[in-house]
Structure formats: structure tokens, C-alpha cells
Amino acid sequence: MSAKGNVLITGVSSGIGQATAQLLDQRGFTVFGTSRNRDGVATPGVHMLPLDVCLNQSVEACVSAVLKESGRLDILINNAGYAFIGAIEEAALEEAKSQFETNFFGVMRMVEAVLPIMRKQGSGQIINVSSLVGIAPLPFAGYYSASKFALEGFTEALRHEVKPFNIKVSLVEPAFIKTNFMRNRQLAVNHISDYDPWRKRVSDAVGQREADGAEPTLVAECIGHIVESKSPGLRYPIGKGAARVVRMRRFFPESLFEKGIRRSFRLDSA
């Protein structure tokens, strides 16, 4: 195994996860990547494992496989997730639960599986891939935003709790990135046409921003920096306008920030 460390990354079949796995492999880490369908993924240099973060047994089997092959686990990068899109009123309870099951409880399962290992080692690192919408919610993606808001609070609390064990914890918060992420979104089954004019404006804006967004390699480079940093920070906003949105959220009056969001997506246009 690599002297630089062993890394487990969830969701490496495409986009940010795949770019991160490739970059860390190139930098000399031993990389274990996961997807729900191991046979459908070819990532040279990456040890692939099947994983469904929604199933306790799958999580336990995945982490055990890493330990069996490498003897230790130095870094966990929680990247697996998906976007559920729909107005709050349109979402069925089961659809909302499913969003949280993957994006939040999936991370929780992975963290709980690796913490005993890292505490015993006396070192480790956890990086959770959040989103800029975990700071500034996206209309018509309320439950996706909520899952990322939950992840933000979870991660910040975790960072405090595990610091005495020399376990480092960070968040990356990508803005719109040029991936298939939103094209692979799941839509609410209960469609309410009253929302269509505003939904279309948001959808058009998101599509344009994804097309103009940064490549997933930008996020991978940031994660590479975090991994190799002696003292990594908590939050890393990434992509066009991300740092600006974070500053606005922090320093602008709530009413002014809300107006900015509505103007950005033309929600009050005639």
C-alpha cells in the first residue's frame, strides 16, 4: 500500500468523484473507489468496490474490504449523492426521505463505520462533499438543499468532536460544476403546473450555469490540497462566484440576500 496513505472515495463513477480518484492516484495515494455497480465502472489505478450508502451491511462490507486489503484507512471522502428536484409542495414524504437517506444518512453511515478505525490509528481525515446550496438554498431543490444544510451542521460538529483524536474534518462546497449531476436528477412525481413559470426560470438558469461552470478537476484539485495540507480548514467554497455567495450570506442583511437570490433566478420577473 502507498506510503502517502489509503483513501476511500464514495461515488467515483463520474464527475467529481472520478476526477478526485484519478488525481489522488496520480499523486501516489492508494485509492479505493465505490459505485453501486462495480462492473460498470472502469477507473485505471483505482481499486473498485461495490457500495450502497443506504444499506448498513453494504457500508460495513466496503470498509472491511478496504481494511482487509490495506490494513488501515487514512482518508474518507464522502462524495456519493444525487439531486431531487421539485417544489416543496410537490415532494412526497418518501421522496424527501430518500434524498436524505443518500445525501445525509449515507454520509453518517460511512463516518460511523470509519471513526473506530481512525481513533485506533490515532489519525485520519474525513472530507464531505457538500454544495453551495448548503449555504444558499436553490429554489425547486429544497430537499436537496436541506440535505446539504444538514451535512454542513453535522460536519462542523464532527470536526470539534474528533479533533482530540487527530482526525481532520473538512467540507468542500462546489458551486455549479460541469458534470452530469443535474442531468441525472430525480424529479418529483407529483407535478403541480402552477409552479411551472418560476420552475422554468430556475431550470434555465441552472442549466446555463452548469454549462459555464468549472470542470470537476477544479474540485479534485481542491480536495488534493486539503488532503496534503497540514492544517486544513473547515469550509472550501469552489467554483464561479462561490466565495462571493458565501460572503454575501455572511455579511448581507437577510432581506438583501433574499432579493439577490430572487433576482439571480428572475423569480420576480413579469
Structural account:
- This protein is α/β, with parallel strands linked by helices.
- It has one domain: Rossmann fold (3-Layer(aba) Sandwich), CATH 3.40.50.720.
- It contains 9 helices and 9 strands.
- The strands form 2 sheets. A 7-stranded parallel beta sheet has the order 3-2-1-4-6-7-9, sandwiched between helices. Strands 5-8 form a two-stranded parallel sheet.
- The radius of gyration is 19 Å and the shape is globular.
In short:
The protein is of the alpha/beta class and 270 residues long. It has nine helices and nine strands.
Which structural traits does this protein have?
270 residues; alpha/beta; Rossmann fold; 47% helix
Topology at a glance:
Blueprint: E1 6-9, H1 15-26, E2 30-35, E3 47-50, H2 56-70, E4 75-78, E5 84-85, H3 93-103, H4 105-121, E6 124-129, H5 142-162, E7 167-174, E8 186-187, H6 196-211, H7 216-228, E9 235-238, H8 242-251, H9 254-264
Parallel strand pairs: 1-2, 1-4, 2-3, 4-6, 5-8, 6-7, 7-9
Helix pairs in contact: 1-7, 2-4, 3-5
N-to-C terminal Cα separation, in Å?
Answer: 61 Å
* Class by SSE composition: alpha/beta
Q: How many independent structural domains?
A: 1
Can you tell me the overall shape?
A: globular
What count of helical segments does DSSP give? 9
Question: What is the succession of H and E elements?
Answer: EHEEHEEHHEHEEHHEHH
Regions with pLDDT < 50 over 5+ consecutive residues? none
